[in-house]
Specification:
Blueprint (H helix, E strand, L loop, with lengths): L3 E2 L8 H14 L7 H14 L3 E5 L2 H12 L3 E4 L6 H8 L3 E4 L11 H7 L4 E7 L8 H11 L3 E4 L7 E2 L2 E2 L6 E5 L12 E5 L2 H11 L3 E3 L2 E2 L10 H32 L5 E3 L13 E5 L7 H10 L2 E2 L18 H5 L3 H9 E4 L7 H17 L1
Parallel strand pairs: 1-15, 3-4, 3-5, 5-6, 6-9
Antiparallel strand pairs: 2-10, 7-8, 9-10, 11-12, 13-14, 14-16
């Protein structure tokens, strides 16, 4: 019996990719803002309806560059995220400070963030978990009151809208992931969305070792550039984006229908929302279900179904962050509860109905047997 993984990347045809590779081979331009990358940036900005996009080699580098551009000493963020969110803060030379999350959006709670603000706070790094928009209005109001800029970790949020407008237009910057597991990908990659040309210029300079021109390097930078090979993949994936989101929507609707009668299984993301991107299918395993989340996770793996506990453990429970005084004494009850109950089920556009039925039937059967 084949294993069913939590994610699987969509791909263009080999022939389509090879056609773009022919141009790369003839030009011999592989990196350093080649023509495909410039075209890719322009098409991403147009697709998303945002003013300025700087494509980078991956989202972690994108977060580091965004934080370097601001120059914060302390950054308030969520413990309920992939570890790259907090890694980027430390790699940018800042100190992460954690605040609890909202129980509905599972993203940072602005009220909890406000309690953590000190004179050293230089930025807020909020995450749109599973592509669910965090409290943008709350953070924008908080930013206006305090003057503290907000960066959004939008790794899950490509093409997500709110009231018809991209959520990436909020804040000082938003950072996207183009990793292969995402709704939209370029195999590896990411992008920084910003609101003005001068910020984009500074971002692009940092991404190119801090070099402004042939003889000028006035800021410390790094190599965060994307290659032409990855830009080619991204250009082709943009063409497939509407079909991929629509296919994922069909999978989400089947899950919602198939799991509707299983007590204790509660979907987190909306079903049939045209402004959501169907990045993931997280569920809460509530007490009404006879198995704990971890027991269900293990039982599914025994049946060849590789679900994932995103996000468990909390970042504050990871060894790399236990040296922070805050993580040794403070608990985050909302985030902790979510981390103990959440389970992401397999979701990708070409998940077959037979494989999806295996997942649904296994959860239902295990729910009956206990």
């Amino acid at each position: 019996m084949n294993e069913i993984y939590v994610a699987r990347p969509s791909l263009p045809s080999v022939e389509e990719y090879a056609a773009l590779l022919d141009g790369i081979w003839s030009r011999r331009i592989l990196t350093n803002r080649g023509p495909l990358l410039q075209q890719f940036e322009a098409e991403v900005a147009e697709t998303l309806g945002v003013p300025h996009v700087s494509v980078v080699a991956n989202a972690t580098l994108g977060l580091i560059v965004a934080l370097m551009e601001i120059g914060a000493k302390e950054v308030i963020t969520t413990p309920f995220s992939f570890v790259a969110t907090a890694n980027s803060i430390r790699l940018a030379g800042a100190k992460p400070v954690f605040a609890d999350i909202d129980p509905v959006s599972l993203s940072l709670d602005p009220a909890e963030v406000e309690r953590k603000i000190t004179p050293e706070t230089g930025a807020i790094l909020a995450v749109h978990a599973y592509g669910l928009p965090c409290d943008i209005d709350g953070f924008e109001a908080l930013s206006q009151r305090t003057g503290i800029p907000v960066i959004y970790d939008a790794a899950h949020a490509f093409a997500v809208r709110r009231d018809g407008r991209s959520i990436l237009n909020a804040g000082r910057m938003s950072v996207l992931s183009f990793h292969a597991t995402k709704v939209f990908h370029s195999a590896e990659g990411g992008a920084i969305v910003c609101q003005d040309a001068e910020t984009k210029r500074r971002i692009d300079t940092i991404c190119n070792h801090g070099i402004s021109d042939e003889t000028t390097t006035d800021v410390v930078g790094m190599n965060a550039k994307m290659s032409e090979l990855h830009a080619a993949m991204g250009l082709l994936q943009l063409r497939n984006l509407p079909a991929e989101i629509a296919a994922r929507d069909r999978v989400v609707r089947r899950y919602a229908h198939g799991l509707a009668g299983v007590p204790g299984i509660r979907p987190i993301c909306p079903t049939g929302d045209p402004e959501h991107n169907n990045y993931a299918y997280p569920i809460f395993v509530d007490p009404e279900y006879p198995l704990s989340r971890d027991a269900l996770y293990a039982a599914l793996r025994q049946r060849g179904i590789i679900a994932r506990r995103y996000f468990h453990p909390l970042i504050t429970d990871l060894g790399a962050f236990r040296d922070l005084p805050q993580t040794q004494v403070e608990r985050f009850p909302v985030a902790q509860s979510a981390s103990e109950r959440v389970l992401c089920l397999p979701l990708y556009g070409d998940l077959s109905q037979d494989d999806q039925n295996r997942v649904i039937d296994a959860i239902a059967e295990l729910g009956r047997k206990g």
